[in-house]
């Protein structure tokens, strides 16, 4: 079995496809080592195990909307794409979305997957409850407000199998998505805050190969949207654009300022399309928002050293949260993301250069993407790491759910 991009081969001795929670409990009780894989969209070995790999793909697909609490509850193997119709029928939405809805909610939550928007927190912050099958096979439900909750949401797969997950919703909203091209880097640096706050969700895409940021994507709430030919010196795109210049923009969600449902605009790629390039690697580093411009300028200064192996880079913002292992824990955050061509050796060299450049800004790496940072450095970036490890030890005293990635990195 391989990951979605086909560049990580899982080492699992056995793959289990349970169809009932009781079966999951039984598998967990019997296993010495195990891990759950979601939709396999991670770019490192975070989901891997040399024991039993569980996929929840054959579990029931129940989706329950609670009209009183305005929450949606579903199973651990369900993707964002699958809950979109139920949300639409109920007039509800999610505050934010990643670039794609193809990923499982539990898998995205486990790694603090995020979208963009100065006021938008990571996707994990929408989780209000989750139910685990713990290492001893017992079922434990945690909800927001419980002592362990903030440690258990971004769980890196280390606490057990998430069999149920509940998300907060917001009233459904409409978005107008517009793409501009040719944003001068000098303007991006001088007006960074104005740019990232210019719409509900903003992304800057760049190949780091000129004096411009290639594309500025604005996802505006339709109620506040005003059509414009220019934004911050960038010009309105003449046709639909893909973040990767040589790919077909018509495979992306609706652009051109045509307002419509959040669920068809908040992601860059619709569920019906292959997201991004397909055969690729990704890295992402989070810096404290207060260092965003300095970090941006530092990367710009050395762009020639890493741009040859890059498809495209994306710069996004996230509001701080309180989830212990979240990339945005305790700090408003800017993410510098890199979609790489699939040359692992060249990517590793480029990642070394980027990590060295960003080191003064104390970046946190995206848990699910390629990074080389030393474990001690990663550990130093998470003030609640000791508490997280205690929690993992309580849920899983023998480390059944720990794989080589987690053991080397954190334990
Ligand atoms: C094209 C593409 C675009 C992307 N865009 C973004 C983006 O916009 N923003 C961003 O932040 N990231 C992005 N990512 C990264 C992606 O969001 C993460 O890799 C995410 O974790 C993938 O979810 P998954 O369901 O594939 O989980 P997997 O990769 O299968 O697993 C991730 C982790 O979750 C654990 N896990 C999964 N299911 C469960 C469960 N039920 N119980 C317990 N643990 C579980 C696994 O053990 C593993 O540790 C992108 C990836 C791709 C391929």
Question: Overview of this structure, please?
Answer:
By secondary structure, the chain is an alpha+beta fold. The protein folds into three domains: 14-55, 2-Layer Sandwich (Uridine Diphospho-n-acetylenolpyruvylglucosamine Reductase, domain 2), CATH 3.30.43.10; 63-172, Uridine Diphospho-n-acetylenolpyruvylglucosamine Reductase, domain 3, CATH 3.30.465; 174-375, 2-Layer Sandwich (Alpha-Beta Plaits), CATH 3.30.70. Helices cover 22% and strands 26% of the residues. The protein contains eleven helices and 20 strands. The strands form four sheets. Strands 11, 12, 13, 14, 15, 16, 17, 18, 19 and 20 form a ten-stranded antiparallel beta sheet that branches. It binds flavin-adenine dinucleotide. Flavin-adenine dinucleotide (FAD) binds at residues 4, 35-42, 46-47, 56, 76, 98-100, 103-104, 106-108, 110-111, 113-114, 156-157, 161-162, 275-276, 366, 368.
| Average residue-wise pLDDT | 97
Q: Tell me the strand percentage band.
A: 25-35%
Percent of residues in helices: 10-25%
* CA radius of gyration: 20 Å
Count of the domains? 3
Number of strands: 20
Structural class, judged by helices and strands?
alpha+beta
């Amino acid at each position: 079995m391989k990951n979605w991009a086909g560049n990580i081969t899982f080492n699992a001795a056995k793959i289990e496809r349970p169809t009932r929670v009781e079966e999951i409990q039984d598998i967990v009780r019997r296993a010495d080592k195990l891990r759950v894989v979601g939709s396999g969209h991670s770019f490192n070995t975070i989901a891997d195990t040399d024991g039993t790999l569980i996929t929840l793909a054959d579990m029931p697909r129940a989706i329950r909307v609670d009209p009183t609490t305005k929450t949606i509850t579903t199973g651990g193997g369900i993707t964002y794409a699958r809950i979109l119709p139920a949300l639409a029928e109920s007039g509800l939405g999610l505050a934010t979305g990643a670039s794609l809805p193809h990923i499982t909610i539990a898998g995205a939550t486990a790694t603090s997957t995020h979208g963009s928007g100065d006021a938008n927190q990571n996707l994990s912050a929408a989780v209000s409850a989750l139910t685990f099958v713990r290492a001893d096979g017992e079922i434990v439900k945690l909800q927001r407000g419980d002592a362990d909750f903030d440690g258990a949401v971004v769980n890196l797969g280390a606490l057990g199998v998430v069999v149920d997950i509940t998300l907060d919703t917001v009233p459904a909203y409409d978005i107008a998505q517009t793409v501009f091209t040719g944003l001068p880097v000098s303007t991006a640096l001088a007006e960074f805050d104005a740019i990232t706050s210019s719409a509900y969700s903003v992304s800057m895409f760049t190949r780091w190969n000129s004096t411009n940021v290639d594309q500025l994507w604005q996802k505006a709430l339709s109620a506040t949207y005003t059509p414009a030919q220019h934004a911050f010196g960038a010009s309105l795109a003449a046709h639909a654009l893909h973040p990767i210049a040589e790919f077909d923009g018509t495979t992306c969600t609706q652009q051109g300022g045509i307002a419509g449902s959040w669920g068809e605009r908040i992601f860059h790629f619709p569920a019906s399309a292959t997201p991004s390039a397909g055969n690729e690697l990704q890295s992402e580093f989070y810096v404290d928002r207060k260092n965003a411009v300095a970090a941006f300028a530092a990367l710009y200064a050395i762009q020639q050293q890493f741009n040859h192996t890059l498809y495209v880079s994306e710069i996004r913002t996230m509001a701080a949260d309180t989830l212990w292992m979240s990339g945005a824990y305790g700090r408003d955050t800017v993410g510098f993301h890199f979609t790489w061509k699939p040359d692992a050796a060249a990517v590793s060299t480029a990642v070394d250069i980027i990590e060295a450049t960003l080191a003064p800004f104390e970046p946190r790496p995206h848990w699910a993407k390629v990074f080389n940072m030393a474990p001690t450095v990663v550990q130093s970036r998470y003030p609640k790491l000791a508490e997280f490890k205690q929690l993992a030890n309580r849920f899983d005293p023998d480390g059944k759910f720990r794989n080589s990635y987690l053991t080397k990195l954190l334990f």
